[in-house]
C-alpha cells in the first residue's frame, strides 16, 4: 500500500514536470527571453567611446552598445550586433537588412527624411584637429587651398570637408572609411587637418597622448539618436520608453560615467 502511494505521487510529479517543460517556453514573459524578438543593430566601430571594438574580447563595445543593450533588456527584446561602414548604415536600414542604427549618428533634418530617430541622447559638435605642435592652423579659418583635410565617409565631418573643397577653401577633401586610419594620416602628415566629432577626437587624443590636438571652436551643434526604419513606430516607442527608464533609474548615468569619466 505504502509503495503504491509513493509510485502514484512520483507519477503525478513526473506528469507535472513534463507539463511544465512543455508549456515553459510559452509562459516565460518576453522580458525573460521567452518570445523576445531579436533586432539587428548596426554600428561603425571606429568612433570611440561610442562605437569601438574591445581589445581583449574583440567584441563590439562602447557607450552605444551599453545603452542599447540596457534598453533592450528593459523592453524585453534581444539584439544581434553587426558592424558596417558608416555610409552603409542608412541604406541597410532602408532596405530592411538591419532594424536599428546605434552609431553616434547625428539626428539631422536631412537624415530625418529617410529614417526615424529616437529621443537624442548626446549633444555633440564638429571640431578641427591637427597634428600636435602645428602652429599654422589655429582654427578652420587657417585652412588654405594647398591643404588636404580629412573626414569619415557618410558623416557630417566629411560633408563639411567636401564643402570646404567645393568652395575652394582647401585643396582636397580626403574621405576615409574608418577614423582610425584618418587619425594615423593626421599624425604622419598625410592630411593637414581632420574634421570630426568633439568627444571622439578627444577620445583618440586620450589614447594617443601628444599626437594630435583640437584647434578653434566647436563648429556646429549635433545630437546623436538611434535610428529605425521610417514608420517603425512600434520599435521606436520601445527604444524611447527604454531610454527614459534608463535615465530615470540611473543606468544612463552609470553608462555615461563608465565611458566618459
Ligand atoms: N557626427 C557624425 C555624423 O553623425 C559622426 C558619426 C560617426 O562617425 N559615427 O555624421
What order do the helices and strands follow?
HEEEHEHEHEEEEHEHEHEEEHH
Q: Architecture of the largest domain in CATH?
A: 3-Layer(aba) Sandwich
Shape: elongated
| Count of folded domains | 2
| Name of the CATH first level of the largest domain | Alpha Beta
Helix content: 40-55%
Distance between the termini: 71 Å
Largest sheet: number of strands, sense, barrel closure? 5 strands, mixed
Low-pLDDT stretches: 19-31
Bound molecules: glutamine
- Total beta strand runs: 14
Characterise this structure.
It is a single chain. With 261 residues, this protein is α/β, with parallel strands linked by helices. A 5-stranded mixed beta sheet has the order 4-1-5-14-6, sandwiched between helices. The protein folds into 2 domains: 36-121 and 225-260, 3-Layer(aba) Sandwich (D-Maltodextrin-Binding Protein, domain 2); 124-222, D-Maltodextrin-Binding Protein, domain 2. The protein starts with a helix and ends with a helix. Helix 2 packs across helix 8 (233-248) and helix 2 (63-75) packs antiparallel against helix 9 (251-260). The relative contact order is 0.17. It has helices at residues 2-27, 63-75, 86-94, 109-112, 156-166, 179-187, 198-207, 233-248, 251-260, and strands at 38-43, 52-53, 60-61, 78-83, 100-101, 115-117, 122-124, 126-131, 148-152, 172-176, 193-197, 212-215, 222-224, 227-229. The chain contains 9 helices and 14 strands. It binds glutamine.
Amino acid at each position: 500500500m505504502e509503495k503504491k502511494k509513493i509510485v502514484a505521487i512520483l507519477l503525478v510529479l513526473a506528469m507535472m514536470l513534463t507539463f511544465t517543460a512543455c508549456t515553459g517556453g510559452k509562459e516565460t514573459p518576453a522580458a525573460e527571453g521567452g518570445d523576445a524578438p531579436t533586432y539587428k543593430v548596426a554600428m561603425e566601430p571606429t568612433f570611440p567611446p561610442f562605437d569601438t571594438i574591445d581589445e581583449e574580447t574583440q567584441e563590439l563595445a562602447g557607450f552605444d552598445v551599453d545603452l542599447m543593450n540596457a534598453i533592450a533588456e528593459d523592453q524585453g527584446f534581444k539584439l544581434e550586433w553587426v558592424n558596417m561602414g558608416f555610409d552603409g548604415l542608412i541604406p541597410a536600414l532602408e532596405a530592411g537588412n538591419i532594424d536599428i542604427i546605434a552609431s553616434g549618428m547625428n539626428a539631422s533634418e536631412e537624415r530625418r527624411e529617410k529614417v526615424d530617430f529616437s529621443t537624442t541622447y548626446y549633444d555633440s559638435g564638429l571640431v578641427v584637429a591637427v597634428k600636435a605642435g602645428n602652429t599654422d592652423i589655429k582654427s578652420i579659418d587657417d585652412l588654405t587651398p594647398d591643404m588636404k583635410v580629412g573626414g569619415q565617409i557618410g558623416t557630417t565631418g566629411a560633408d563639411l570637408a567636401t564643402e570646404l573643397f567645393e568652395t575652394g577653401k582647401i585643396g582636397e577633401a580626403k574621405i576615409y572609411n574608418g577614423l582610425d586610419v584618418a587619425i594615423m594620416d593626421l599624425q604622419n602628415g598625410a592630411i593637414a587637418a581632420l574634421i570630426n566629432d568633439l568627444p571622439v577626437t578627444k577620445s583618440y587624443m586620450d589614447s594617443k597622448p601628444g599626437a594630435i590636438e583640437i584647434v578653434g571652436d566647436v563648429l556646429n551643434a549635433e545630437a546623436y539618436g538611434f535610428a529605425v526604419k521610417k514608420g517603425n513606430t512600434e520599435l521606436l516607442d520601445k527604444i524611447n520608453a527604454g531610454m527614459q527608464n534608463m535615465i530615470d533609474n540611473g543606468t544612463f548615468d552609470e553608462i555615461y560615467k563608465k565611458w566618459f569619466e
